[in-house]
Design a protein that fits this description.
The protein is of the alpha/beta class. The mean pLDDT is 96. The protein is built from 15 helices and 10 strands. Helices cover 49% and strands 12% of the residues. The protein has 2 domains: 273 residues, 7-stranded beta/alpha barrel (Alpha-Beta Barrel), CATH 3.20.110.20; 111 residues, no CATH class. Strands 1, 2, 3, 4, 5, 6, 7, 8, 9 and 10 form a 10-stranded mixed β-sheet that branches. Helix 11 runs parallel beside helix 14 and helix 14 runs antiparallel to helix 15.
């Protein structure tokens, strides 16, 4: 009997992150993880790197790190996943925006990683899934999607087969218990990890998927790379009872099983959230006034962008430049971090909330500016939308005092 396990590391920084923080995380986490893989040729991971972080690493001079990631992918030690470029919570945005974020992410990572970037699977930001997201991911051409174990609706947890969505999309679920214990330093050595892998009393081969923020290793848990990850990578070649895989290798090895429709959820959703019908509590809690107003604010901004997009063909070059800037600002502005920082479960940061709002507001102003002068009725309609938008912003700002 063999336990096949996969690490899925998700690395991302919000587009409004300050350079000093990115530099710290690169040195504490990203580079040491990649070096550990490079130094242990039989080690491998599945990696989600959102396109916004790929661009930030390039902009801040870390092309050498991107090149090593590309080379390790070419050797089969890193498997990429698809995602949304600017890390929006996909179930909270309309279908065209989900499709746009996936497309932008693919284009950005393909630009930097070339043919090494050929993702078979999809990592939804915060593992936030809904029926609409699953259908769009399948339509986008992905073979599988990863989500939290709490999304599983089958009586048993899939460990020796791959369950399937009615669309044909393969459904992969992380082991929440082991993943969370690794992330919070409750499993911090090789023996403890392997003991946890052997939690099933069976003679059949099975698999375990561990998924967490890559920043866990070295940044959040300072000793996790030297005391756990590197020793684990070094031990793997000498054991026959465990085998490290990419997630796609697990999909290829284990048979298809039961069909299911996963529940709406994220990797921060708890059973009591499901019972209260709040599937995305850190981003859209009906009891959180800031979340409600943030959502209104985003929807007003999306309306303005989509209105102005209808007039792009009639814009002169300067108006097109203004519109394209607005579109880019909104792509950046709908990242999920500002809602997360408003959740108070337990974290709270007015600064991060306002940084996100500022980008969305600038996008909205530029969307209105881009409308050609011979369309006064549309400009007037946009002004009315912006009045409501500013009411939502005012409520948010006053609640931060």
């Amino acid at each position: 009997m063999v336990v096949y396990f996969a690490f899925l590391f998700h690395i991302y920084q919000p587009p409004v992150q300050i350079p000093l923080v990115i530099k710290q995380i690169v040195n504490e986490s990203y580079k040491p993880i990649i070096n550990a893989l490079r130094d242990n040729s039989e080690a491998k991971i599945t990696l989600n790197i959102n396109g916004t972080l790929t661009e930030q690493l390039h902009d801040f001079g870390y092309d050498d790190l991107l090149e090593v990631i590309k080379n390790l992918s070419s050797k089969g030690q890193i498997e990429f996943t698809g995602s949304g470029k600017f890390h929006p919570l996909l179930p909270l945005i309309p279908e065209p925006e989900i499709e746009r974020q996936i497309k932008l992410n693919n284009e950005t990572n393909k630009h930097f990683f070339g043919n090494a970037y050929n993702p078979q699977g999809f990592f939804p930001p915060e593992m936030a899934v809904s029926e609409e997201v699953l259908k769009i991911v399948k339509k986008a051409g992905f073979n599988w999607i990863i989500m939290s174990g709490i999304a599983n609706t089958l009586p048993e947890f899939p460990t020796d087969y791959i369950s399937v969505h009615p669309s044909g999309l393969r459904l992969l679920f992380r082991d929440d218990y082991i993943s969370i214990d690794c992330a919070f330093d409750k499993i911090n050595n090789v023996d403890a990890f392997i003991k946890r892998l052997y939690y099933k009393n069976t003679s059949k081969d099975y698999y375990v998927i561990l998924a967490m923020d890559g920043e866990t290793f070295g940044h959040h848990v300072k000793h996790a790379i030297n005391n756990f990850l590197i020793p684990l990578f070094q031990a793997i070649p000498h054991r026959n009872d465990i085998k490290i895989c990419t997630v796609s290798e697990i999909v290829d090895r284990f048979p298809k099983g039961f069909t299911q429709v996963p529940r709406d959820s994220s990797w921060s959703t708890m059973p009591y959230d499901i019972a209260a019908d709040v599937p995305f509590p850190l981003w859209f809690d009906p009891q959180n006034e800031i979340h409600i107003e943030q959502h209104k604010f985003f929807m007003y901004a999306l309306t303005l962008i989509h209105l102005s997009a209808k007039y792009r063909d009639g814009m002169d070059d300067e108006k097109k430049r203004i519109f394209d800037n607005a579109r880019n600002l909104l792509d950046r502005g709908i990242h999920s971090c500002q809602q997360w920082w408003a959740s108070r479960r337990p974290f709270y940061s007015p600064d991060m909330i306002l940084r996100g709002l500022n980008e969305v507001l600038m996008a909205s102003v530029n969307a209105k500016r881009s409308i050609p002068e011979n369309n006064p009725d549309i400009k007037e309609a946009m002004e009315l939308i912006m009045e409501d938008m500013l009411k939502a912003q005012n409520k948010i700002v006053l609640s931060l005092m």
